[in-house]
Amino acid sequence: MSVQLREMNEPVVETTPESLESIDLLRFTTAGSVDDGKSTLIGRLLYDTKSIFEDQYAAIERASELRGDETIDLALLTDGLRAEREQKITIDVAYRYFATPKRKFIIADTPGHIQYTRNMVTGASSAEAAIVLIDARKGVLTQSKRHGFLASLLQIPHILVAINKMDLVDFDEDVYERIVEDYTEFAAKLSVHAIDYIPLSALKGDNVVEKSSNMPWYDGQTLLHYLENVNVGANRNMVDFRFPVQYVVRPNQDFRGFAGQVASGRIVPGEEVVVLPSGKRTRVKALHFFKEEIAEAVSGDAAIMTLEDEIDISRGDMIVRTHNLPQKSDKVDAIVCWMSETPLNPDGNYWVQHTTRRVQGYISELNYKIDVDTMHREAAETLQLNEIGRIQLTTARPLFYDRYQLNRATGSFILIDPYSNNTVAAGIIRGKSRRVADLVTGEIDSTEIGIAESDGDTQRSTNVVWEQGDVTRHMREERNGHKAAVLWLTGLSGSGKSTVARLVERRLFDLGFQAQLLDGDNLRHGLNGDLGFSAEARQENIRRTAEVAKLSFTHGNIVLCSFISPFQRDRDFARSLLPPNRFVEIFVQCDLEVCKRRDPKGLYERALRGEIKEFTGVSSPYEAPQHPELRIDSAHNTPEVNAQLIVDYLIAQGIIPRQTG
Question: E strands along 213-326, which residues?
Fold first, then answer.
């Protein structure tokens, strides 16, 4: 066997333990159809970044020789099971670690076979990016779509479609473009924030770590460059503080702490918190990591918390901020992937493990199972191994949760067989349970009825029933020729939100689409004219506006909302009223000093003189979006450029069709 190899002791980059401690971590998963080259791609990535030892390389070299392979099979680096090596397929989830000076990585190599769907769900559950491999010779297959759907279902924020084996199609650009077109058409049906495409050859190394000279027509990034630069933390909820208690620490009579992992958000000593389910209020006295006291704990951190008051707290309780509470219900609407060879028992009881809380529960209703090939619903009396379905789950004690779309940690759970103690299903929470009568048939989209139920604490009128018209949103969308959506433009006063919103409205109108503009100032002249600018009044202002936007959305419109909306919770409430992928948060970013210089209405000058109380940016805070769908720079771009960026985004997401001619 003769191959050209780099010297194993020649590093591509220099890394030290000290330098690795200061860089971030990306967890990503690979998926694709059978024999698309997932394991080979990871092996190539590990080899070309010098992330394997010489004895590892020698071992796979010997194994390749014994099998009679003409070249060294880098897939053996991840195919660890004997059955995997014999069949040259991936069966179990294989985890691998490597690092570069820019980032650390954990890879979950998941199976491509349909019978291992549960393994893919397991491997992707904590991933922030997914690489879906497609064989350039075969094009977009059912499994390619299946894995894209699962990545979307699990809310993985970044999907990279790696079109592999380009060497076997003579690096033909037309083949690449055709696959991109086919998958883009399919992905328009998914709730995906970002999708990218790279042509490569895992076997030869083209566009994996280094640019390929065989594809001069491709001027994009390599796989490694993508992985090193993709946004980390896009799906981490840094707003809603959730601390499920794992263990009570009592080393002596003078110390009583509560250990756990911060599921989301952040906390510092001195903040007021409430303990659930007791509802007892107190303040954080101190935070500890092992024996050291720390100044802050953020999402993902393990910590021990001490409180100023003695409160009875045990495993399964949750500590949260007093004014930022999770949802509470003993009946939740969920999507589950069945992971047991024993089918779902519609009359059976299961343990529900949610964060650190374990309660008894039962499936009060199986609404349908999902055909992940077509994304349509099918009637079902049970779920078999690897099948995915929608259920209504009833628990003996309430769960404290957030919708999975907002918080992976508190929006997920597993079902455990009480007799075998085996995990039988993994689930994601959509919200509070709804009646079957509320559901209609159709394609798995962001909502089932056109109006998403709010999980908020908003007071509702009694003795009233929502009247569903004979003309549905889907019917209006079909006639309009575009999808309905709410575009929520948020930013400081003077950032240019309204200017951009008016331009977008005009462009959509000129294109023949149904668009409506809701402007903050205009609504305060009428509907919201009775409101002031306190935190409570601002919240009510956004609540009313969001409800109006929802009504317009159900009539098939593209609704542009231009509001400062300074608080993240209020924007999240507006989002909760709509289906996933139909609420577009647009951060109109502009430096405060630039806004002050613009001051088109003279408001900053008056606020600085003390004439306007609680003015955002001067005497009232603005919580900038951490993970908006779109971020536009109004300090450097013209309004026309920003308007076009928004229109381009709508086209890319499949909300409006691309114009031809």
Answer: 242-244, 247-252, 255-261, 266-267, 272-276, 280-289, 292-294, 297-298, 302-307, 318-321
Burial 153-173 (b: 16+ CB within 10 A, else e): bbbbbbbbbbbbbbbebebee
C-alpha 143/C-alpha 186 separation (Å) is 12
565 is catalytic: yes
Instruction: Count CB neighbours of 211 within 10 A.
Output: 16
Which three-class secondary structure state does DSSP give residue 134? strand
CA distance 262 to 298: 6
> pLDDT per residue over 459-480, tens digit each?
445 444 445 566 888 888 889 9
Q: How far is CA 304 from the centre of its chain?
A: 28
The SS3 call for residue 443 is strand
HSE (side-chain half, CA atoms, 13 Å) at 535: 9
Q: Which residue has the tokens 């080899």?
A: 47
* Residues of the chain where predicted confidence (pLDDT) is lower than 70: 1-23, 34-36, 51-94, 110-125, 191-193, 233-235, 373, 434-470, 535, 613-614, 617-619, 660-661
CA dist 396 and 349 (Å) reads 10
Q: What is the pLDDT of residues 42-82, one digit of tens each?
A: 878 877 777 665 555 566 666 655 665 556 555 555 554 33
Sheet-wide strand order for 630-633: 515-519, 558-562, 485-490, 583-589, 630-633
| Catalytically annotated residue among 264, 340, 565, 576 | 565
Domains of the chain: residue spans and CATH: 17-229 (3.40.50.300), 242-321 (2.40.30.10), 327-438 (2.40.30.10), 474-652 (3.40.50.300)
